[in-house]
Design goal:
Radius of gyration: 20 Å
Mean pLDDT: 90
Number of helices: 6
């Protein structure tokens, strides 16, 4: 059985990988597909397929994090630990659906680039519909993924396996993202710029990964469970 220190370090590595391959790099590569019908000149097939494969991996990493933390988290709340796994599975399922919409956007952009002048208007109508499907799948997935990150922070706070300040900042950053980026897509209301509302979560997630890789889980933990 792994020690708490080693368990924490494994989770830290998984969190860092999740940040890189599940939250940042693929979306940077795929950004042109969500912004333009004619994105085939901006991204090639190899880039798109690599990004989508990274997103599959990123979705699976949330399950790996939840499973690796199970033996520790269940001591403090069996219910929350179970929900952490359930949300990770839901996140992976929605990531798979979102990946299908990314590939649909890429295929559409290639066909759009080959269309003649008489077909462009039809492609515009179809493209708008396809992009709306992608948008709502993306934001639904984003809501579940950040909710999983919120719950991860709650579990880290309850178990005191990382500094309490760092543990509290993860749920707070998640709430900023949810109320500043995701929910306004479903319930329109004025918010600050998206970058301002999303950046804190990325910084906290990176800081948490680095801390865990260096220090692992603390051995000084609470002794209650619910």
């Amino acid at each position: 059985m792994r020690s708490p220190t080693n368990t924490g370090r494994v989770i830290g590595i998984l969190i860092l990988l999740h940040l890189i391959v599940g939250l940042t790099t693929p979306y940077i590569i795929l950004r042109p597909l969500g912004a333009s019908f004619d994105a085939s000149a901006l991204v090639n097939g190899a880039q798109v397929r690599l990004a989508v494969m990274l997103l599959f991996l990123g979705g699976a990493l949330t399950i790996a994090i939840a499973l690796n933390g199970w033996s520790t988290f269940r001591e403090y709340s069996f219910t929350f630990a179970t929900w952490l796994i359930a949300l990770a599975i839901a996140n992976f399922a929605l990531q798979c659906v979102e990946n299908a919409t990314w590939m649909s956007l890429f295929t559409f952009s290639r066909e759009y680039a080959k269309a003649n002048a008489g077909e462009v208007s039809l492609f515009h109508v179809t493209g708008i519909g396809l992009r709306m499907i992608w948008k709502w799948v993306h934001y639904t997935h984003l809501l579940i993924m950040v909710s999983w990150m919120f719950l991860l922070g709650v579990m880290l706070w309850r178990s005191t396996v990382v500094p309490q300040t760092l543990a509290v900042l993860l749920p707070l950053g998640s709430l900023l993202q949810i109320f500043g980026i995701t929910l306004p897509q479903f319930i329109p209301y004025p918010t600050p710029p998206m970058t301002l509302m999303g950046l804190p979560l990325g910084i906290v997630y990176l800081a948490l990964a680095v801390w865990l890789i260096v220090r692992g889980f603390s051995n000084e933990r609470k002794s209650f469970a619910t």
